[in-house]
């Protein structure tokens, strides 16, 4: 139900000699760090790969509103409710910038949403996990936004102009999101014993799914080699995941929480934390549609789309009326 059905037509990376003169000139521009803009020549595989990645990213933002939106009515204070509302709204805005960036590649928003609603397009695995207690909202901000920023900061240098530029604003907002999550957990960890237990429980459930956000190991990653040659991806899945672990473990220690990984230890020689293996069986089950909340998430998006149909119809009718009124004025 959930497998990506966008065939990008790329099965291996071409060498310079195998490329057409147009493709060689394109690759040279990329190597020189010159941005590609919507009207420039681009190989079909580049265009399709971008549509796949940007639309998956956009879908992740709007599906990502659901687990947190679930807690807006149950936030423990007016201040926390206002912060959470603003954050969820920001995620909706990120989705819109990203859909606009994808549209510059010649695909319509209706097509992209249809791919999401019919299960042809993916969104991040992380949003198929439930938010069971208030500390989960802190864990999402700290870990999920934290992982998203780690991945998105390099994407500001993506070779495709509209995507890289959308990422600049998104990253600024995500860093506030991460701080609000950490601040929420800090308050809970300095609170009662019961609150601290809730925070530990949230970390236990969100740690491994957050590490999965970076995707499969580099040697299992179908798209990395080509996407890195085209600078659609700037850093590899494993190197970003390692950086996330290195940055996050000391933050957990400061909170007084324990990362749920018995294999986790500082490796003096490597200058990095060693950590345990991800449960890839779980990752692929979630990606294929069999995670705890896949069906619920998709159903919520489809229902929201149907419920908003009258607004789209009214806006279209208004625009058409406006257009025919101005046509009449022109004729007169
Ligand atoms: N979930 O060859 P690779 C956020 C798929 S935004 C589901 O390594 P690629 C903000 C992948 O699509 C979070 N599927 O793929 C927020 C491919 O399948 P396909 C989203 C995954 O594209 C915070 C297959 O596995 N961020 O959180 C996942 O080179 C809080 C092979 O993998 C972005 O989308 C996964 N985790 O690298 C909102 C950033 N990982 O398409 C609300 C942009 C891999 O062939 C609240 N995207 N797959 O069927 C990227 O950087 C890349 O697309 C990666 C995957 C790194 C995610």
3D architecture notes:
- This protein is mainly alpha-helical and 332 residues long.
- The chain is 64% helix and 2% strand.
- The protein has 13 helices and 2 strands.
- It has helices spanning 21-31, 44-63, 65-69, 78-103, 109-117, 135-155, 161-189, 193-212, 224-229, 237-255, 280-290, 294-307, 309-331, and strands spanning 265-267, 272-274.
- It has a two-stranded antiparallel sheet with strand order 1-2.
- Strand 1 (265-267) and strand 2 (272-274) form a beta hairpin.
- Helix 2 runs antiparallel to helix 4.
- The termini are far apart.
- The structure holds Phenylacetyl coenzyme A.
- Residues 4, 52-53, 56-57, 60-61, 64, 91, 122, 124-125, 140, 144-145, 148, 151, 212-216, 221-224, 227, 233, 237, 287 line the site of Phenylacetyl coenzyme A.
